[in-house]
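Methods: example folding runs. The two proteins below were folded one after another, and each record is reproduced exactly as written to the output file, sequence line first and structure-token line second.
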Amino acid sequence: MDDGFSHLEDKNDTFRLIIDEAQAGGRADKAIAALCEDLSRARVQDLIDKGSLKINGLKIKSSRKVEVGDVVEIIVPPIESAVIEAEDIPLDIVYEDDDLLVINKPAGLVVHPGAGNWSGTLVNALLHYCGDSLSGIGGVARPGIVHRLDKDTSGLMVVAKNDMAHQGLSAQLSDRSLSRTYKALVLKVPVPAKGVVNAAIGRHRSNRLKMTIDERNGREAITRYGVEKAFGAALSLVECKLETGRTHQIRVHMELIKHPLIGDGLYGPQPTALRAAMEKEGYDLKTIQKALEFPRQALHAKAIAFIHPVSGEEMGFEIPLPGDMDKLLKSLDK
């Protein structure tokens, strides 16, 4: 889910998506940026101004309100070669030695530069902090990046400072000995309370910004889940452990079993379904609105464990939920 790279390739390409109820009524630039994690709002506005982004085949203004069923067409022009610049962006470093870093990534931070995001990324911050010491295996745009988290997923990542560390961590990622555990707030309560989702994931045929279940052409994807806490029958906090690392894996798998993540603009529940489930449990309007308006997928990478690629030491790290998810859960408790 979080180890795939940019959705928008470095070439002239066309992508289509359809506005659903979750985005309906919002400004076009804001709604589309929320759907396309590789495009910032400023980049969306630029594409609209250049006529490279149309709705229902027509040029639009950024302020246009989107409606259910609107067909968005995005023509992404070829990417010009760019020098990735170091930027002084604060990093929450959980652990550091000569070979690697473990970082607590905040929601909203893009991991590596790509279409519309050549600055303000984790890589820009790492280049400033580490200088030229980062592993070059990831190439110019992805130095040191062993795996990634979606823009709006918070939590732990490990970054390689040199090629030896990168190779060792990548090998553990491949043989599944690098362990990653997430917490997700989902619609309703999965039954059974513990289970395994084993369903291959591939790129969506008609919406290239999404992933989908594809048993014929997709790549193997396995997620283990367990309900940690239920909020009546309306919502539940679920722990998910990845055995594979496909783009959007947890988000796609939880949607598959009909327990999509709260706040997920691509795969999440329709507002009407979420509202109905919460009203049935007696939640007040204020709490319902907090859940309806949660601004990102409620997904947090809480723990990571691996063998140090140089010393051979077993290492494990865990961090609590970020403030936004913690605040929402506390309001549900009330």
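Second run, written to the same file directly after the first:
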Amino acid sequence: MSKSASRPLSARIHWYWVCQLGGWGLLGLSDMAVNLRLLDRPGMVIICWWTAATGMLLSMLWRHALHRLRWAGAAPHWGKLALPILLLACTETLLVYAAIAHYRPFGPIEGYNWLNGAMVFWIGIYMVWTLLYFSVQSMRRATRLEAQALQLEVAAKDAELRALQAQINPHFFFNSLNSMRALMYEDRDAAALMIDRMACLMRYALQSGANGTVPLAAELEVVQAYLAIEQIRFEERLRATVTIEPGLEQVCVPPMSLQTLVENAVKYGVETSASGSDIAVHASRQPGAIRIEVANTGALRSTSPSTRVGLQNARKRLALAVGPNATLDLQECDGWVQAVMILPEAA
């Protein structure tokens, strides 16, 4: 399918010609209606349509001149426009007079007092045409500027999302590399397995970074891989469960967002406790929303500045990728620290 065929019908219609043909055609019909009783006279119908055709031709030449003089791109300056409009009115009046003189539907032409009225009429017609044309050009310019501003806004949001993604991934990889280094001295086989899973995580992070959102199922796969890596390191100190309600696999989330919350739960729940911590990942459907929770046993402590930045970045990424109605909150309830992500469900 060609690009022009795929565009909406309203975008493919050349509205200038629609308005030109419609406006001048209406003028021709109005002229015929005014002279309805005279249409049987010689050349009267031709004169009515000659008037409309020459008027449209002169308006087209006037449009071309406006663009050549670069007057159409600014507000109308009637001091500059007065003389050209007067010349247009004179020319049109002479053209109509020539047709009347040729066909003589009113008999021999006696006197020229009617020319004053004709001049005033055509000056008014071309002033209205010019005002309408400048108004349409102004609206098109405003629409174009609005579209450009929207494109810049989208580009800025996309750049901000990519920048926030870049801030999070190095932190994740740094922690994982530290874990592998520590494991190399304890269990080489486990370290090799950890490297394999780390390669999978890196592949996912690089591929998903090009997307604003990913399916929840894909994000859960990377979470499971991350937990498997940390399970090798912490062994029985890390006790993780993942429960997802059926039908939520294709819910869109920012890439690495759920993994980041799980990583924080490991960092502040498992690492800081000699006995380790339970970590629970749960996704469920609420009325009009999807609730994703990452919780770890423990108490909500005064977080460091770096943690606040991480949580703030996660909120920004969530808002940019999903929308302003999405929320991410950290709370403590019954011995659990819960990071709760609320995503508005698509209608």
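Comment on the second run: The chain has ten helices and seven strands.
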